[in-house]
């Protein structure tokens, strides 16, 4: 009987701890981020299972997109010239 009571008390403590987490702050920052252009993403590196948080602005993402496009165009031209 003691074990059952102890188990029930521990379960109640664990569940009350989980329900006390406030998610309104995370939701408000993500909505603010969308209006500002600032965004955080979870990124997983190749060979790892651990995601890291990467935060960028809209201009940084656009610059990265343009750089990737430039690299792809350059590689396409050089590989076509070698054939």
Question: What are the main properties of this structure?
Answer:
alpha+beta; 83 residues; single chain
Descriptive overview:
This protein has a domain at 31-83. It is 67% helix and 14% strand. The chain has 3 helices and 2 strands, in the order ααββα. It has a two-stranded antiparallel sheet with strand order 1-2. The protein is elongated, with a radius of gyration of 24 Å. The termini are far apart. The model is unreliable at 20-25 (pLDDT under 50).
Would you spell out the secondary-structure blueprint of this structure?
Layout: H1 2-19, H2 24-36, E1 39-44, E2 51-56, H3 58-82
Antiparallel strand pairs: 1-2
Would you summarize the structure shown here?
This protein has 83 residues and is of the alpha+beta class. It is built from 3 helices and 2 strands; from the N terminus they run ααββα. Residues 51-83 are annotated as: Disordered.
Task: Bin the helical content.
Answer: 55-70%
Strand content: 5-15%
Order of helices and strands: HHEEH
Strand order of the largest sheet: 1-2
Span between termini: 80 Å
Radius of gyration: 24 Å
Question: Helical stretch count?
Answer: 3
Give the overall pLDDT as a whole number. Answer: 74
**Low-pLDDT windows of residues:** 20-25
Secondary structure tally: strands? 2
Major beta sheet summary: 2 strands, antiparallel
Global outline = elongated
Structural class, by secondary structure, is alpha+beta
Biased composition (Basic and acidic residues): 61-72
Signal peptide: 1-21
Keywords: Signal
Region (Disordered): 51-83
């Amino acid at each position: 009987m003691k074990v059952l009571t102890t188990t029930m008390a521990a379960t109640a403590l664990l569940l009350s701890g989980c329900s006390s987490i406030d998610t309104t702050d995370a939701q408000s920052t993500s909505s603010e981020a969308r209006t500002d252009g600032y965004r955080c993403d979870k990124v997983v590196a190749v060979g790892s299972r651990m995601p890291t948080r990467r935060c960028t602005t809209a201009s940084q993402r656009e610059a990265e997109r343009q750089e990737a496009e430039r690299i792809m165009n350059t590689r396409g031209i050089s590989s076509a010239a070698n054939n």
